[in-house]
Amino acid sequence: QTPTRPTRAMISLLLLLSAVSAVAQETVNRQQNISGVHIGGIVDSGSYSTFAAACSAAVTINATLLVATSWTSVATQSCSASLLFTLGGSIRPSSRATVTLTGDITAPLVQIFDTSVGGTFVLRKSLPGVYPQWFGGQTDKDSFDNIPALNAAQQASVGAGIPILITGRMAVQSPLRPLSNTTWIGTGTKS
Length: 191
Hints:
With 191 residues, the chain is α/β, with parallel strands linked by helices. The chain has helices at 8-32, 51-60, 147-158; strands at 38-39, 42-44, 64-67, 70-74, 77-79, 83-85, 90-93, 98-101, 105-106, 120-123, 164-166, 184-186.
């Protein structure tokens, strides 16, 4: 399954789902006496106190984990749930923490992984690719330095052999040093 850019209808539906889940949380908790919101096979991570608890809940019921909020200071952990990111949804590990994600990832081409404080990500081997935009990269902006995003993307992919997918022109302000055993694939007309 290849991560794709969501259509406007998909983004609208995801934003609507996020809003509905916030409104439904209190009702669901009262009626079913549970600690999170589960709607149609999707668990809203924002209704849990930690990212680890949200992942555990999604895995327990074999549901997709909706990441519509910004998770910061995430401790070292693994999450095997499939993740569905909306605009504004992101994960930032604590300094020196490693977050291992072994489920499918569906996300728009925006930053969803934040390594700014020194944490890292490890992605599963069967993902079809990783996008530098997921790490803050930007295309078609000549003054923007994509080196941090490109380096974070290759660090997350190198152990699993996942290709790094370049979807446009990505400016760099210093030399890019590709790691051994990395594959770079241009997927756009300017890549």
